[in-house]
Amino acid sequence: MLATGTILYTKDGRISSNARVLNYVNQCYVIVTDQNNIVYLSEKDILHFYYLNEDHSQLHFRLVNKDDRRYYVRIKEIVPVME
């Protein structure tokens, strides 16, 4: 069972955006997408459309705000800044 607050990273941005688990009701997960859409999905559907954050902990993501919307940006490499 997925915990409330679990971040879901989309496998294909053309189909869905990143999301977060809000609740579990009537054998379905209630999730909210980055576009603030509320969606009800089974665990099977979630695993089909999303990566779970614990499965991709080696990837680095950053939350950015743009045009009053929130986006998760995948960072390929983190390089220290020399001052």
What does this structure look like?
This protein has about 80 residues and is mainly beta. Helices cover about 10% and strands about 45% of the residues. The protein has 1 helix and 7 strands. The protein has one helix spanning about 45-50, and strands at about 5-10, 20-25, 30-35, 40, 50, 60-65, 70-75. The strands form 2 sheets. A 5-stranded antiparallel β-sheet has the order 4-3-2-1-5, with helices on one face. Strand 3 and strand 4 form a beta hairpin. The chain is globular. The termini are far apart. Residues about 55-60 have low confidence and may be disordered.
What is the number of E strands?
7
Largest sheet: 5 strands, antiparallel
- Our measurement of the CA-to-CA distance between the termini, rounded to an integer number of angstroms, reads 45 Å
Oligomer: single chain
Spans of 5+ residues with little confidence (pLDDT < 50)?
55-59
The shape, in one word, is globular
Task: Sketch the topology as an H/E string, one letter per element.
Answer: EEEEHEEE
* Structural classification: mainly beta
The strand order across the widest sheet is 4-3-2-1-5
* Helix run count: 1
Q: Into which percentage range does the β-strand content fall?
A: over 45%
Radius of gyration: 14 Å
